[in-house]
Amino acid sequence: MRGKKVRFAGVLAASLALVLTGCGGGGENQLATGGTDAQAEVDANAQFEPGTTMAALQQQGTIRVGTKVDQPLFGLKGLDGQMQGFDVEIAEIVAGKLGIAPENIEWVETPSKTREEVLEQGRVDMVVATYTINDARKERISFAGPYYQAGQDLMVKADDTSITGPESLRPAGAKVCSVTGSTPAEEIKKYVDASNLVLFDVYSKCADALRTGQVQAVTTDNVILLGLVEKSGGEFKLVEKPFTEEPYGIGIKKGDVAFCEFINQSLTEAAQDGAYEAAWKATAGTVSERTPQLPEFDPCS
């Protein structure tokens, strides 16, 4: 995983429009095997107890991973058909601990609405797809992790020093843009007056409004904002003061405690040996100045 070079420039323009307009694809599609252009560390000597998910996957030498294909910096299918992003890197880390090389990962396009379904029906072995852990989903599937703490944040112009977090918006009299009907649009009402909230149907229009000075900030989940920052060519920056919590976990079959514990151990080792940090810096870290810490895990159940 060290030294991995990920090329985003050529694919963001073609794919960012998909995530900004909420087009996640209509259904589950098989993608090209193989990930980014460097090899993940593969444990050729891994041994597992017979009868476990880990043993079965190691024996078959492949793993099916559900992920997004239109999420810049997290899960993106490049113009060359290869997968790239932080979620992709995390999946490759886990696969490597199973003794499975990146080229033997079968990527399955998994939009948000099908994530529980593909696990319940056995069409994938795990889902790594900006997948927020919550109680409703836990009724149908199990989660390992979380491996990343996402949250709502603010995007401002690169030279703006007046907006330092949500609490600074009202004193600054800042106009803030979000998308009609979204959770972030409701959450930001705690910090701005209704007259200073500007709503559009897509985030690309919010970015245009920020660029032209019609608003002073854009708000939504930080993973979407990171893509907008990347596309801005240095014109925008992320405030990096998230004010909601969205723990991203790895979805697996309901009740597979042993697999959950294995994934958590794999993530722990990646944080200890630097692979987690390298994965971030090669992907979302090209935009974000701060490398996240691996969050505290939820109990496996």
Mean pLDDT figure: 89
Uncertain segments: 1-28, 32-38
- What's the main sheet like? 5 strands, mixed
**Oligomerization state:** single chain
Q: For the record, what CATH class of the largest domain applies?
A: Alpha Beta
Tell me the series of helices and strands, N- to C-terminal: HEHEEEEHEHEHEEHEHEHEHEEHH
Q: Give the beta-strand count.
A: 14
CATH topology group of the largest domain: D-Maltodextrin-Binding Protein, domain 2
What is the CATH architecture descriptor of the largest domain? 3-Layer(aba) Sandwich
Strand content: 15-25%
Full CATH superfamily name of the largest domain:
Periplasmic binding protein-like II
Number of domains: 2
The CA-CA distance between the termini, in Å, is: 29 Å
Work out the helicity level. Answer: 25-40%
Number of DSSP helical runs: 11
Structure report:
The protein is α/β, with parallel strands linked by helices and 301 residues long. It folds into two domains: 9-149 and 246-286, D-Maltodextrin-Binding Protein, domain 2 (3-Layer(aba) Sandwich); 152-238, Periplasmic binding protein-like II (D-Maltodextrin-Binding Protein, domain 2), CATH 3.40.190.10. It contains eleven helices and 14 strands. It has helices at 9-20, 53-60, 86-97, 115-120, 135-138, 169-172, 183-187, 203-211, 222-231, 257-273, 275-282; strands spanning 29-30, 63-67, 70-71, 75-77, 83-84, 105-109, 126-127, 142-150, 152-157, 176-179, 197-200, 217-221, 236-238, 246-252. It has a five-stranded mixed β-sheet with strand order 11-10-12-9-13. Strands 1-6-2-7 form a four-stranded mixed β-sheet. α7 links the parallel β10 and β11. α1 (9-20) packs across α9. Pfam families: SBP_bac_3. It comes from Saccharopolyspora cebuensis. Belongs to the bacterial solute-binding protein 3 family.
